[in-house]
Amino acid sequence: MGADGQCTEHNCKDCPNREQPAPVARRSAVSWILSGGVAASLVSFFYPIVRFLNPPNIAEAAVDEVLAGKVGDLKANSGKIVKFGNKPALLVHVNDSEWKAFSAVCSHLNCTVQYQDSTSQIWCACHNGIYDLNGRVVSGPPPKPLEEYAVRIRADEVIISRRG
Ligand code: FES
Question: Strand 148-154 to strand 137-139: parallel, antiparallel, or no bridges (unpaired)?
């Protein structure tokens, strides 16, 4: 401050016209809101990714037996996928007197297998895995056979059940 009481320095601490800093409370409130917005954006972006990569464990439905359909629904030398709990099963009507059923989940990378009537084999389209009608691996990458289920006919119904 000069002898005449005028301020000679820009924004000196004794100057009555000194610029006042913005109130800290308002600045910190704006900062808080912006930080919260950024945090919410990050959470909304990453949460679905984390949930996708780490899905919740869903307890497998405890199913030991299912009604797979009527005898007349499936002609000989054909197969169909049916639900066995929360997994697919493959029912094969081999010939007039023989039925087979397997887990339709490929032992390689869990693709769903299908029956091929031209070769009378079970085929996995994902990596060309082939199983025979006993569920054994014929060729391709599957490391293990398919789980085989029991099939019984009750009246005109086809019942698939786990082997006990
Ligand atoms: S998932 Fe079936 S052969 Fe690869």
Answer: unpaired
Q: Which of 127, 137, 138 to mutate to test the pocket of ligand 1 (most atoms within 8 A of CB)?
A: 127
pTM: 0.66
| Residue range 111-163, pLDDT digits in tens | 999 999 999 999 999 999 999 999 999 999 999 999 999 999 999 999 999 98
Ligand 1, atom 1, residue with closest C-alpha = 109
Domains annotated for the chain, with CATH where assigned, are: 1-56 (no CATH), 65-161 (2.102.10.10)
List of residues 6+ apart from 1 with CB closer than 8 A? 7, 8, 9, 12, 14, 15
User: Taking CB atoms and a 6 Å cutoff, what residues make up the pocket around ligand 1?
Assistant: 106, 108-109, 111, 124, 126-127, 129, 140-142
User: Which atom number of ligand 1 is nearest to the Cα of residue 129?
Assistant: 3
What is the rounded CA–CA span in Å between residue 106 and residue 66? 20
Q: Which token pair is 152?
A: 């019984």
User: Is residue 75 a contact partner of residue 61, using CB atoms and an 8 Å limit?
Assistant: no
